[in-house]
Design brief:
This protein has one domain: Arginase, Chain A, CATH 3.40.800.20. 35% of the residues lie in helices and 13% in strands. Strands 1-4-9-8-5-6-7 form a seven-stranded parallel β-sheet, with helices on both faces. Strands 2-3 form a two-stranded antiparallel sheet.
């Protein structure tokens, strides 16, 4: 399996986030990708596919905001990382502000996703990594490829950031795959947290099937999305499958949900699978509450590989840095 990563993805280095009423060190830190890089000997370079694939998923005003946000923050006399504090929860509509703190609220839904000096650079190359891995699958005939996407992406919607995510790497790859005639495309999200941004992007679309196994949003972030009754709407009705699980779920309890998701993906007739993989389902993760162990990841990967379709794995969460590299290796080895 070919592995793709660009060191520019480590330029994103916020110092802190607001969590449960207090400032805490930023959990999605640069030690995460470094621990994964150290677990493997051979990494492939990332190519630049430009802005067009990003614009196929994200709003142009939102992308322009991400690119300029930190500069505008500093120009306004602020210091440190740009973080919003006012969010339009009703009648959200496009308005021209000319004020960075208003823009931050308009294009985000939480205060835990700061924009630092290197955020745009890292997010851009994270998306290019997913596109490079997809291109490799399409050109080589290989069955699997891994993109170490950092920052992660599955909480980012068409025109908003959140949950440490700025560009939706899985959605960008899915759109690009569909445009290349590689579909039908399915996305399987197995991060601890629901991939609300990915769901939102395809919710009324119907050309990409989305299945997510995650912590019950009645108890865990992102709370407002990921409930089992969210099945899609319009052309997308029936193309969205949420399988929420309770805190404490271990490997044995996780497997029936995975089997359900895989059966749905097979019934959909997927010809390409994108896996949003989060290792924050591990028992040691400091911000999550599942109880999967390292050996479970290989078993899950073997089950996914049983679909026998080309599979692009993109990295999402996972915050137990000491275990992260070995957990990712266990998952990839299962393929």
């Amino acid at each position: 399996m070919k592995l793709f990563f660009d060191d520019r993805q480590t330029a994103h280095a916020p110092l802190r986030e607001l969590h449960n009423g207090d400032w805490v060190p930023f959990a999605e830190n640069v030690e995460r990708p470094r621990s994964i890089v150290a677990a493997f000997a051979d990494w492939q370079p990332v190519r630049d596919f430009g802005m067009e694939p990003l614009l196929a998923v994200h709003d142009s005003d939102y992308l322009a905001f991400l690119e300029r946000a930190h500069r505008d923050w500093i120009a306004a006399g602020r210091s440190g990382d740009a973080i919003g504090y006012t969010f339009p929860v009703v009648r959200r509509r496009p308005l021209a502000f000319g004020r960075i703190d208003a823009d931050l609220g308009a294009f985000s839904y939480d205060a835990g996703t700061p924009i630092a000096e290197g955020t745009w650079q890292s997010a851009y190359w994270s998306a290019q990594g997913a596109l490079t891995a997809l291109d490799h699958l399409a050109a080589s005939g290989d069955r699997n490829a891994f993109a170490l996407c950092r920052p992660p992406g599955h909480h980012a919607g068409r025109d908003y950031m959140g949950g440490y995510c700025y560009l939706n790497n899985a959605a960008i790859a899915a759109r690009a795959a569909t445009a290349r005639g590689l579909g039908p495309v399915a996305i399987l999200d197995i991060d601890y947290h629901h991939g609300n941004g990915t769901q939102d992007i395809f919710y009324a679309n119907g050309d990409v099937f989305f299945a997510s196994i995650h912590a019950d949003p009645r108890t865990d972030y992102p709370f407002y999305w990921g409930h089992a009754d969210e099945r899609g709407e319009g052309a997308g009705e029936g193309a969205n499958l949420n399988l929420p699980l309770p805190r404490g779920t271990d490997g044995a309890a996780y497997r029936p949900a995975l089997d359900t998701a895989l059966a749905a993906i097979s019934d959909w007739g997927a010809k390409l699978l994108i896996v949003s993989f989060g290792a924050d389902t591990h028992s040691s993760d400091p911000i999550s509450s599942f109880a999967l162990e390292r050996e479970d990841y290989g078993d899950l990967a073997k089950a996914i590989a049983g679909l026998d379709v080309p599979t692009l794995i993109v990295m999402e969460g996972g915050y137990a840095v000491g275990d992260l590299g070995r957990n990712v290796a266990a998952f990839l080895e299962g393929f």
